[in-house]
């Protein structure tokens, strides 16, 4: 497969950001956030039977113009994170790379995913990668939905986000179907931990130090997840608001990144984010969502039923994990994505 870089450029907002909004202060939640970028990859098949060069050119122009329009409303995304205190909303824009490859999207999806690209068949692999300091899962989904609405020219669906004062931290509703998430997360947690236990060199630390054994009941893990979620109560949210809540958040962040943490397993959920509804106006095309970066990422499957989970562990652990009978009783490993 040959990858050709077509263009590298910065996409600027359509309209300049008002001077009063040039300095966006980060909240304490953002300041204590783990420093990582959150990539998301979307695949769209081409069902347009028109001239292929015209189809590709039109899609490229549409993506860039609609992104420019969206950045006007999501102006911090077009700025620069200067430090742990603020974003300079200088309209620098977002880095945009367009590539083309000499294979069809269907063939490509049978291989390992790579950079964002336009395939020789006119299909598109669209990858976004944004700092976690700028957004959470809900904001990520909102940004993508607004971008697709702008691409379709659907003004009634375009949102005008409010970037509130960081001194005010509102209650955030649950982002996933809790019962479904708890069951799946517990199963993956157990299977990954078993693989780490059996591996001579675990990338996750030592699960045994936290009392985890392969005989631990699945229901026990589900109950543990329920307990942890229940502790994120209104009282807890109130406790981490404002200056008085900063020490608590700093302590949590230090605990998550500390080398003393014996077993670190990140699980992120994108349930109910509507990612398979992201439509740039290319009717009838299939979208495949891949969650990367996190140890485990889960979301709905594009087929309309089932769940897609992407698990990232060491090669040695993966060899054990993907052959776990308990996992295989409920899941298919590396299924055909389309």
From TrEMBL:
InterPro entries in the record: CAT-like_dom_sf (IPR023213)
UniProt keyword terms in alphabetical order: Acyltransferase, Transferase
GO molecular function: acyltransferase activity
Similarity annotation: Belongs to the plant acyltransferase family.
PANTHER family the record matches: F21J9.9, VINORINE SYNTHASE
UniProt protein name: Transferase
Species for this entry: Heracleum sosnowskyi
